[in-house]
Amino acid sequence: MKKNVHPVYYEDTKVVCACGNSFTTSSNKKLIQIEVCNKCHPFYTGKHRYLDVEGRVEMFKKKQEKAKEYLIKLTPKKKEKKEAPQPKTLRELLETM
Q: Could you read off the pLDDT tens digit of each residue along the chain, which spans 97 residues?
């Protein structure tokens, strides 16, 4: 390998969270400061809540219904063509000629 190309690799990097939790790992930085860790993140602590603010699912469904109505208005109505019945057999085809 080439010399003086790779960054310095620290085996004892200290990671410090805003909540006060700290642990060691390996990195190319000597100190890493983070805002959220596994000790204070709501998902890992069990305080995670799913919020349905203002009925987002219902709002989405309403938008989809309006979009369908709008598309129906935009599509031109096809004229129904009344065609003569097609002959079912070769004999019927020859008789019409």
A: 688 888 999 999 999 999 999 999 999 999 999 998 888 887 777 776 666 666 778 888 999 999 999 888 887 766 666 777 777 788 888 887 7
Among candidates 50, 44, 85, which has minimal Cα distance to 93? 85
Q: Give the range of the structural domain holding residue 25, as residue numbers without chain letter.
A: 10-74
User: Quick check: is 15 in a domain?
Assistant: yes
How many whole angstroms separate alpha carbon 13 and alpha carbon 32?
7
* Residue 67's CATH number: 4.10.80.400
Record the pTM. 0.44
